[in-house]
Amino acid sequence: MIKSFRNTKAYLFLVFVFFAAVSVFLVPDISFSQQFPDCMRCHKDKAAGKYIHPVGCVKCHTYAHITGTKEKFPKYLFARGVELCWGCHDKSKFTNKVEHPPVAKGECLSCHNVHTSDTKALLLAPMPDECFMCHANSDFIRKSKHPPVAEGKCMGCHDAHSSEVKKLLLAEMPEECFLCHKKEKYISEAKKKHHSPVATGLCLNCHEPHSSDAQKLLLKPTPDVCYMCHDGSDFKNKYNHSPVASGMCMSCHEPHQGDVEKLLLAKSPELCFNCHDRGEFDRKNPHPPVASGMCNVCHDPHASPYVALLYNPTTDECLLCHPRIGKAPHAAGGFSQVGHPLKGRKDPMSRYGELSCASCHNPHSSDYIKLFRYEAKTAFELCTHCHAYKKKK
């Protein structure tokens, strides 16, 4: 009988343990306000927000309302100030080389509510309003906004507490930018040429990291942003290439990297044909430098004091390669052997109103001999386009 009683007692104990275990797994997690109902009777506001500090009250208030004890720190806390936080939080994460000023001062509560908040991480306000409690928002709301800034994702670039990098960045430049931007688009071994500030990781030499009044977050609109490094006087003269005059540097140049000298979008003359009519340059008889794509042998691509963006006055430019023409009578000569004038006279038929080699010759290409500008099979036939000729009766 005693043995039977013992078996029954053991059975009941096992049943109790089973139901106790089941209750532990089936009952949902309870907040610290339920674990310590006595605290919530008076301090309901400490757990009124959407997010609650995930520790029990007595984790911090270790001697709350214990009679007969002397309060060492205010509010029954076990430590004072930031030392209280180090009781749970890893101090090393908050004491890197560069510290957020409020963190360095131990002012955790300038950003966080210690008990409860309607914002994640117990912040006092949603992002980015939390940051604007100290940082002026005028630098973040200009016309062109960096997407993470526009979305209030300050922590996409910065560590809120401490970092090994200046400005509390998550990584050194330019690796910081490559956390989002694809590195191969800006610095790639596959490309032959790299813009110097890009190659050296100086992204912020051209771009604002937060917001800007210029497109692409540039520090200034083009071409002014380019003139921060390049001498602007080289791009302004009496005659200016249209895209240069309009500040359209990127219509010819890549800003980051490329395969062509000077970071051009394409080699010459293909680059030039993006705007200029190819038909003007590939007639039956092309000028050799034109056929070789050597546009810049005669023309300055940016600005010039001379017509057609030439490096020299038209005839002088031609004589650089054709000096013999300037040393002997040209085309025709009478008893004085003066020959046809090459410059220094008006030419109403010329585009620029001045007589030059281009009055008779097309400097790019022609369907006629000797690059004649007008239809002619002989030099004499060309003359009749300007000079009246009367047959003898």
Write the layout of secondary structure elements.
Layout: H1 2-26, H2 32-35, H3 37-42, E1 51-52, H4 57-60, H5 82-85, E2 98-99, H6 101-104, E3 116-117, E4 144-145, H7 147-150, E5 162-163, E6 193-194, H8 196-199, E7 211-212, E8 239-240, H9 242-245, E9 257-258, E10 285-286, H10 288-291, E11 303-304, H11 314-319, H12 323-327, E12 365-366, H13 379-383
Antiparallel strand pairs: 1-3, 2-5, 4-7, 6-9, 8-11, 10-12
Structural account:
This protein has 393 residues and is α+β, with helices and mostly antiparallel strands. Among the domains are: 31-97 and 105-122, no CATH class; 125-235, no CATH class. It is 20% helix and 6% strand. The chain contains 13 helices and twelve strands. The protein has helices at residues 2-26, 32-35, 37-42, 57-60, 82-85, 101-104, 147-150, 196-199, 242-245, 288-291, 314-319, 323-327, 379-383; strands spanning 51-52, 98-99, 116-117, 144-145, 162-163, 193-194, 211-212, 239-240, 257-258, 285-286, 303-304, 365-366. The strands form six sheets. Strands 1-3 form a two-stranded antiparallel ribbon. It is rod-shaped.
Considering the chains and any ligands shown, give keywords for the structure:
single chain; 393 residues; alpha+beta; two-stranded antiparallel sheet; 13 helices; 20% helix; rod-shaped
Shape: rod-shaped
How are the strands of the largest sheet arranged?
A: 1-3
Radius of gyration: 41 Å
Order of helices and strands: HHHEHHEHEEHEEHEEHEEHEHHEH
Computed structural class = alpha+beta
The total of helices stands at 13
Determine the N-to-C terminus distance.
161 Å
- The number of distinct β-strands equals 12
Please estimate the helix content: 10-25%
Largest sheet composition: 2 strands, antiparallel
